[in-house]
Protein backbone atom coordinates (compact mmCIF):
# COMPACT_ATOMS: atom_id res chain seq x y z
CA UNK A 1 0.00 0.00 0.00
CA UNK A 2 1.13 3.53 -0.72
CA UNK A 3 -0.04 6.99 0.30
CA UNK A 4 -1.14 8.86 -2.84
CA UNK A 5 -2.35 12.45 -2.90
CA UNK A 6 -3.16 12.79 -6.59
CA UNK A 7 -3.28 10.90 -9.87
CA UNK A 8 -3.12 13.46 -12.65
CA UNK A 9 -4.23 12.45 -16.12
CA UNK A 10 -3.18 13.93 -19.47
CA UNK A 11 0.08 15.37 -18.16
CA UNK A 12 2.52 16.61 -20.82
CA UNK A 13 5.26 18.04 -18.60
CA UNK A 14 6.41 14.97 -16.68
CA UNK A 15 8.17 12.99 -19.39
CA UNK A 16 7.63 12.17 -23.07
CA UNK A 17 4.16 11.99 -24.60
CA UNK A 18 0.89 12.10 -22.69
CA UNK A 19 1.32 10.70 -19.20
CA UNK A 20 -0.49 9.86 -16.01
CA UNK A 21 1.42 11.24 -13.04
CA UNK A 22 1.09 9.45 -9.70
CA UNK A 23 1.95 11.75 -6.80
CA UNK A 24 3.20 10.01 -3.64
CA UNK A 25 3.13 11.65 -0.22
CA UNK A 26 6.24 12.28 1.82
CA UNK A 27 9.37 14.32 1.14
CA UNK A 28 12.61 14.79 3.12
CA UNK A 29 13.11 18.27 1.65
CA UNK A 30 11.34 21.43 2.74
CA UNK A 31 11.78 23.63 -0.31
CA UNK A 32 10.47 27.12 0.39
CA UNK A 33 8.81 27.30 -3.03
CA UNK A 34 7.13 23.88 -2.96
CA UNK A 35 3.86 24.02 -4.93
CA UNK A 36 2.62 20.77 -3.37
CA UNK A 37 2.76 21.35 0.42
CA UNK A 38 0.34 18.43 0.82
CA UNK A 39 3.16 16.18 -0.38
CA UNK A 40 5.55 16.99 2.46
CA UNK A 41 4.19 14.75 5.23
CA UNK A 42 4.14 10.98 4.74
CA UNK A 43 0.77 10.59 6.46
CA UNK A 44 -2.69 11.48 5.16
CA UNK A 45 -3.75 14.87 6.54
CA UNK A 46 -6.87 17.00 6.78
CA UNK A 47 -7.29 20.17 4.74
CA UNK A 48 -9.86 22.93 5.24
CA UNK A 49 -11.42 25.14 2.54
CA UNK A 50 -13.36 27.85 4.43
CA UNK A 51 -15.23 29.04 1.33
CA UNK A 52 -17.05 25.68 1.23
CA UNK A 53 -17.86 25.60 4.95
CA UNK A 54 -21.51 26.25 5.85
CA UNK A 55 -20.61 27.21 9.42
CA UNK A 56 -21.20 25.68 12.85
CA UNK A 57 -24.40 27.70 13.36
CA UNK A 58 -25.89 25.42 10.69
CA UNK A 59 -23.71 22.32 10.93
CA UNK A 60 -21.38 21.12 13.67
CA UNK A 61 -20.78 17.57 12.44
CA UNK A 62 -17.03 18.11 12.20
CA UNK A 63 -16.82 19.28 15.82
CA UNK A 64 -18.79 16.28 17.00
CA UNK A 65 -16.64 13.91 14.92
CA UNK A 66 -13.38 15.25 16.36
CA UNK A 67 -12.49 13.14 19.40
CA UNK A 68 -9.53 15.31 20.46
CA UNK A 69 -11.25 18.70 20.46
CA UNK A 70 -9.05 20.14 17.72
CA UNK A 71 -11.96 21.91 15.96
CA UNK A 72 -13.44 25.07 17.47
CA UNK A 73 -15.54 27.98 16.24
CA UNK A 74 -13.82 30.85 14.45
CA UNK A 75 -15.41 34.06 13.25
CA UNK A 76 -13.40 34.83 10.11
CA UNK A 77 -13.00 31.29 8.73
CA UNK A 78 -16.02 29.61 10.44
CA UNK A 79 -13.97 26.89 12.14
CA UNK A 80 -10.41 26.71 13.45
CA UNK A 81 -8.32 23.53 13.44
CA UNK A 82 -5.72 23.37 16.19
CA UNK A 83 -3.01 21.54 14.26
CA UNK A 84 -1.09 20.83 17.48
CA UNK A 85 -4.05 18.77 18.73
CA UNK A 86 -5.17 17.30 15.40
CA UNK A 87 -4.13 13.67 14.92
CA UNK A 88 -5.28 13.54 11.27
CA UNK A 89 -7.73 10.74 11.95
CA UNK A 90 -9.78 12.27 9.08
CA UNK A 91 -13.10 11.54 10.80
CA UNK A 92 -14.04 15.21 10.49
CA UNK A 93 -13.54 15.12 6.71
CA UNK A 94 -15.70 12.02 6.46
CA UNK A 95 -18.44 13.79 8.45
CA UNK A 96 -18.35 17.08 6.50
CA UNK A 97 -21.33 17.24 4.09
CA UNK A 98 -20.00 20.32 2.25
CA UNK A 99 -16.53 18.80 1.67
CA UNK A 100 -14.97 21.87 3.26
CA UNK A 101 -12.85 19.37 5.17
CA UNK A 102 -11.17 16.79 3.00
CA UNK A 103 -8.18 14.47 3.07
CA UNK A 104 -4.88 15.12 1.35
CA UNK A 105 -3.75 11.53 0.85
CA UNK A 106 -5.31 8.16 0.22
CA UNK A 107 -4.04 4.65 0.86
CA UNK A 108 -3.95 2.75 -2.43
CA UNK A 109 -2.64 -0.62 -3.53
CA UNK A 110 -0.36 -1.13 -6.52
CA UNK A 111 -3.30 -2.75 -8.31
CA UNK A 112 -5.54 0.28 -7.62
CA UNK A 113 -2.99 2.67 -9.09
CA UNK A 114 -2.30 0.52 -12.16
CA UNK A 115 -6.04 0.28 -12.81
CA UNK A 116 -6.29 4.08 -12.82
CA UNK A 117 -3.23 4.42 -15.04
CA UNK A 118 -4.45 1.74 -17.48
CA UNK A 119 -7.55 3.81 -18.18
CA UNK A 120 -5.37 6.14 -20.28
CA UNK A 121 -3.51 3.43 -22.21
CA UNK A 122 -4.82 4.62 -25.59
CA UNK A 123 -3.10 7.98 -25.08
CA UNK A 124 0.23 6.37 -24.19
CA UNK A 125 0.21 4.20 -27.31
CA UNK A 126 -0.38 7.13 -29.62
CA UNK A 127 1.96 9.62 -27.96
CA UNK A 128 4.76 7.47 -26.57
CA UNK A 129 3.74 8.39 -23.04
CA UNK A 130 3.19 6.34 -19.90
CA UNK A 131 3.25 6.64 -16.12
CA UNK A 132 5.39 9.07 -14.11
CA UNK A 133 5.83 8.54 -10.37
CA UNK A 134 6.36 11.85 -8.60
CA UNK A 135 5.76 13.39 -5.20
CA UNK A 136 6.80 14.42 -2.74
CA UNK A 137 9.78 12.17 -3.12
CA UNK A 138 8.87 8.73 -4.53
CA UNK A 139 12.03 7.18 -3.08
CA UNK A 140 10.66 7.86 0.42
CA UNK A 141 8.11 5.12 -0.39
CA UNK A 142 10.72 3.12 -2.28
CA UNK A 143 9.22 -0.35 -1.76
CA UNK A 144 5.88 0.83 -3.11
CA UNK A 145 7.55 2.69 -5.98
CA UNK A 146 9.56 -0.38 -7.03
CA UNK A 147 6.45 -2.58 -6.85
CA UNK A 148 4.49 -0.03 -8.89
CA UNK A 149 7.19 0.21 -11.57
CA UNK A 150 7.45 -3.56 -11.78
CA UNK A 151 3.70 -3.93 -12.22
CA UNK A 152 3.64 -1.21 -14.86
CA UNK A 153 6.38 -3.07 -16.72
CA UNK A 154 4.21 -6.22 -16.73
CA UNK A 155 1.43 -4.15 -18.30
CA UNK A 156 3.86 -2.68 -20.85
CA UNK A 157 3.38 0.84 -19.56
CA UNK A 158 6.36 3.17 -20.02
CA UNK A 159 7.68 4.48 -16.72
CA UNK A 160 9.54 7.52 -15.41
CA UNK A 161 10.11 8.94 -11.95
CA UNK A 162 10.77 12.47 -10.76
CA UNK A 163 13.22 12.62 -7.87
CA UNK A 164 15.22 15.04 -5.77
CA UNK A 165 17.91 12.38 -5.47
CA UNK A 166 17.90 12.70 -1.68
CA UNK A 167 17.75 9.04 -0.64
CA UNK A 168 19.96 6.06 0.10
CA UNK A 169 21.81 4.97 -3.03
CA UNK A 170 20.32 1.49 -2.78
CA UNK A 171 16.82 2.94 -3.26
CA UNK A 172 17.81 5.02 -6.28
CA UNK A 173 19.68 2.06 -7.77
CA UNK A 174 16.62 -0.20 -7.38
CA UNK A 175 14.33 2.10 -9.36
CA UNK A 176 16.95 2.97 -11.96
CA UNK A 177 17.05 -0.67 -13.07
CA UNK A 178 13.38 -0.37 -14.07
CA UNK A 179 13.58 2.88 -16.05
CA UNK A 180 14.64 4.18 -19.43
CA UNK A 181 14.33 7.80 -18.29
CA UNK A 182 14.65 9.53 -14.94
CA UNK A 183 13.85 13.17 -14.17
CA UNK A 184 16.36 14.42 -11.60
CA UNK A 185 16.25 17.81 -9.86
CA UNK A 186 19.50 19.67 -9.25
CA UNK A 187 18.60 22.90 -7.53
CA UNK A 188 21.94 24.44 -6.56
CA UNK A 189 25.62 23.50 -6.42
CA UNK A 190 26.34 25.53 -3.27
CA UNK A 191 25.70 23.39 -0.19
CA UNK A 192 25.05 26.27 2.23
CA UNK A 193 22.55 27.88 -0.13
CA UNK A 194 20.89 24.50 -0.72
CA UNK A 195 20.51 23.94 3.03
CA UNK A 196 19.06 27.42 3.52
CA UNK A 197 16.29 27.02 0.93
CA UNK A 198 15.54 23.27 1.06
CA UNK A 199 16.46 22.26 4.61
CA UNK A 200 18.95 19.59 3.51
CA UNK A 201 22.50 19.33 2.18
CA UNK A 202 23.10 18.72 -1.52
CA UNK A 203 26.09 16.41 -0.94
CA UNK A 204 24.05 13.19 -1.03
CA UNK A 205 22.09 14.43 -4.05
CA UNK A 206 25.17 15.23 -6.12
CA UNK A 207 26.91 12.02 -5.05
CA UNK A 208 23.85 9.98 -6.05
CA UNK A 209 23.66 11.75 -9.38
CA UNK A 210 27.31 10.92 -10.17
CA UNK A 211 26.84 7.30 -9.12
CA UNK A 212 23.67 7.08 -11.19
CA UNK A 213 25.46 8.33 -14.30
CA UNK A 214 28.45 6.00 -13.76
CA UNK A 215 26.35 2.93 -12.92
CA UNK A 216 23.70 3.39 -15.63
CA UNK A 217 25.39 5.08 -18.61
CA UNK A 218 22.53 4.10 -20.95
CA UNK A 219 19.82 5.57 -18.73
CA UNK A 220 18.39 8.81 -20.12
CA UNK A 221 18.40 11.61 -17.57
CA UNK A 222 16.49 14.88 -17.72
CA UNK A 223 18.03 17.29 -15.23
CA UNK A 224 15.70 20.04 -14.10
CA UNK A 225 16.33 23.23 -12.15
CA UNK A 226 13.41 25.30 -10.85
CA UNK A 227 14.49 28.94 -11.06
CA UNK A 228 13.72 30.52 -7.69
CA UNK A 229 14.12 34.27 -6.96
CA UNK A 230 16.88 34.93 -4.46
CA UNK A 231 18.09 31.33 -4.63
CA UNK A 232 19.37 30.37 -8.08
CA UNK A 233 18.03 32.99 -10.49
CA UNK A 234 21.46 33.92 -11.81
CA UNK A 235 23.70 32.91 -14.71
CA UNK A 236 26.36 31.91 -12.18
CA UNK A 237 24.09 29.42 -10.39
CA UNK A 238 22.88 27.89 -13.66
CA UNK A 239 26.37 27.71 -15.18
CA UNK A 240 27.69 25.86 -12.11
CA UNK A 241 25.06 23.15 -12.65
CA UNK A 242 25.83 22.97 -16.37
CA UNK A 243 29.55 22.61 -15.63
CA UNK A 244 28.75 19.71 -13.28
CA UNK A 245 26.72 17.75 -15.84
CA UNK A 246 28.22 18.84 -19.17
CA UNK A 247 30.50 15.85 -19.81
CA UNK A 248 27.90 13.21 -19.00
CA UNK A 249 26.17 11.23 -21.82
CA UNK A 250 22.43 10.64 -22.43
CA UNK A 251 21.53 13.80 -20.60
CA UNK A 252 19.27 16.79 -21.21
CA UNK A 253 18.91 19.91 -19.11
CA UNK A 254 16.08 22.38 -18.66
CA UNK A 255 15.13 25.18 -16.31
CA UNK A 256 11.60 25.76 -15.05
CA UNK A 257 10.06 29.08 -13.94
CA UNK A 258 9.03 29.63 -10.33
CA UNK A 259 5.31 30.08 -9.80
CA UNK A 260 3.21 30.48 -6.62
CA UNK A 261 0.31 28.35 -7.88
CA UNK A 262 0.27 26.15 -4.77
CA UNK A 263 0.01 29.09 -2.36
CA UNK A 264 -3.66 28.50 -1.50
CA UNK A 265 -2.93 24.93 -0.39
CA UNK A 266 -0.71 26.22 2.42
CA UNK A 267 -3.75 27.99 3.83
CA UNK A 268 -5.83 24.80 3.53
CA UNK A 269 -3.24 23.09 5.73
CA UNK A 270 -2.96 25.94 8.24
CA UNK A 271 0.55 26.92 7.14
CA UNK A 272 2.17 30.16 6.00
CA UNK A 273 3.52 30.37 2.45
CA UNK A 274 7.32 30.81 2.88
CA UNK A 275 7.91 32.74 -0.37
CA UNK A 276 5.44 35.51 0.40
CA UNK A 277 4.89 37.90 -2.53
CA UNK A 278 8.23 37.18 -4.25
CA UNK A 279 7.93 36.88 -8.03
CA UNK A 280 10.11 35.83 -10.96
CA UNK A 281 9.70 38.19 -13.90
CA UNK A 282 9.10 36.82 -17.37
CA UNK A 283 12.00 38.92 -18.66
CA UNK A 284 14.48 37.44 -16.20
CA UNK A 285 13.39 33.87 -16.90
CA UNK A 286 13.53 34.37 -20.67
CA UNK A 287 17.07 35.77 -20.36
CA UNK A 288 18.14 32.77 -18.25
CA UNK A 289 16.53 30.39 -20.73
CA UNK A 290 18.54 31.92 -23.59
CA UNK A 291 21.71 31.75 -21.47
CA UNK A 292 21.02 28.11 -20.61
CA UNK A 293 20.53 27.15 -24.25
CA UNK A 294 23.75 28.87 -25.27
CA UNK A 295 25.73 27.38 -22.38
CA UNK A 296 24.48 23.86 -23.13
CA UNK A 297 25.31 24.27 -26.82
CA UNK A 298 28.88 25.32 -25.94
CA UNK A 299 29.15 22.34 -23.57
CA UNK A 300 27.99 19.93 -26.28
CA UNK A 301 30.47 21.37 -28.81
CA UNK A 302 33.30 21.15 -26.29
CA UNK A 303 32.53 17.51 -25.51
Keywords:
alpha/beta, eight-stranded mixed sheet, globular, 303 residues, Alpha-Beta Plaits, TIM Barrel, 2 domains, two-stranded antiparallel sheet, 35% helix
What does this molecule look like?
- The strands form 3 sheets. This protein has an 8-stranded mixed beta sheet. A two-stranded antiparallel ribbon has the order 3-6.
- The model has no long low-confidence stretch (mean pLDDT 93).
- It folds into 2 domains: 2-41 and 106-302, TIM Barrel; 45-104, Alpha-Beta Plaits (2-Layer Sandwich), CATH 3.30.70.
- The radius of gyration is 21 Å and the shape is globular.
- The protein is built from 11 helices and 12 strands.
- It has helices at 61-65, 91-95, 110-118, 121-127, 142-154, 169-176, 191-198, 203-215, 235-245, 263-268, 282-302; strands spanning 2-11, 19-24, 45-48, 71-74, 78-81, 101-104, 106-108, 130-134, 159-163, 181-185, 220-227, 251-257.
- Strand 1 (2-11) and strand 2 form a beta hairpin.
- It is α/β, with parallel strands linked by helices.
- Helices cover 35% and strands 21% of the residues.
Q: Which CATH-level-2 architecture of the largest domain? A: Alpha-Beta Barrel
User: CATH first level of the largest domain: which class?
Assistant: Alpha Beta
Order of helices and strands: EEEHEEHEEHHEHEHEHHEHEHH
Number of strands: 12
User: Average pLDDT, to the nearest integer?
Assistant: 93
Name the CATH superfamily assignment of the largest domain.
Aldolase class I
Largest sheet entry: 8 strands, mixed
Inertia-based shape: globular
CATH topology tier name of the largest domain: TIM Barrel
The separation of the N and C termini measures: 45 Å
Task: Give the proportion of residues in helices.
Answer: 25-40%
Percent of residues in β-strands: 15-25%
- Structural class of the secondary elements? alpha/beta
H/I helix tally: 11
Outline the low-pLDDT stretches: none
- Give the strand line-up of the largest sheet: 7-1-2-8-9-10-11-12
CA-based gyration radius: 21 Å
Number of domains: 2
Amino acid sequence: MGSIFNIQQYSVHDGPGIRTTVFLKGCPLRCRWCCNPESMQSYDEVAYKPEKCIGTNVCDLCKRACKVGAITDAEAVKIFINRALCNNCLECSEACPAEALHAFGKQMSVEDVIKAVEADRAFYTRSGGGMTVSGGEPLLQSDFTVALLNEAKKHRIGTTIETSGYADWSKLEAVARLLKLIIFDIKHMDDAKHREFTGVSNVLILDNFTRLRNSFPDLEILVRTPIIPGFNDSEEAVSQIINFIKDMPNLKYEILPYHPLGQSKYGFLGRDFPMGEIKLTDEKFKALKIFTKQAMTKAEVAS
